[in-house]
Amino acid sequence: MKVIKYSLGQLQANCYFLIKDNDCLIIDPGDEVSFILEELQRRRLKLVAMLATHGHFDHLMAAGEIQKSFNVPLYINKKDRFLINRLIDSAEHFLGHQPLIIKPTLIKRLIKVKNKITDFKFQVITTPGHSPGSVCFYFKKEKVVFTGDTLHKGTIGRFDHSYCNKKDLKNSLITLSKLPEETKVYPGHEEETTIKEEKNNLLHYINIL
């Protein structure tokens, strides 16, 4: 499986293309929809689905417009569906202007167990705290995990929103700390890391939360 990262939009959220043969699975279709569509066309990829690590606008802004070109579902934890309803208002609040956003329509609920979309096999790990419906996507065979805003290189996602939960976040970090040390971490912002590299970071936040 080939992984390509694009840091997109004003908040530089990471959007990931997961590629097997001609099939493409997108994790966190953030901003810059024209760029995403052009890349799919340029690489001659067949988009099979989109996955959301959580419901924050900077990770989802392009999803609805992508669905205008590709009739594919967006999978998201049902506990973050309320954030999709706030998508436009949240974007305007944090960006300082009202961007043109088409809300995603073909939305499917993520399952907590093992999943398979075409040849992509992965596990959904529920990791609430940053948001009620935050999840991580763990590809055991490939030894990679996509952590959204739950875990970043050297730090963790914010937990000061009214719907955040420090206790849940602590338990989520404990869960991630138990993944094999060689697991490569693809976060929602900034650069990649590994579970081994983040051991001390994880222990620090687990102790203070």
UniProtKB/TrEMBL annotation:
Residues 12-189 form the Metallo-beta-lactamase domain. Its cofactor is Zn(2+). InterPro entries: MBL_Glyoxalase_II, Metallo-B-lactamas, RibonucZ/Hydroxyglut_hydro. The keyword Zinc applies. It comes from the Bacteria. It holds the Pfam family Lactamase_B. GO terms for molecular function: hydrolase activity; metal ion binding. Keywords: Hydrolase, Metal-binding, Zinc. PANTHER family: HYDROXYACYLGLUTATHIONE HYDROLASE GLOC (PTHR46233:SF3). This is Metallo-beta-lactamase domain-containing protein.
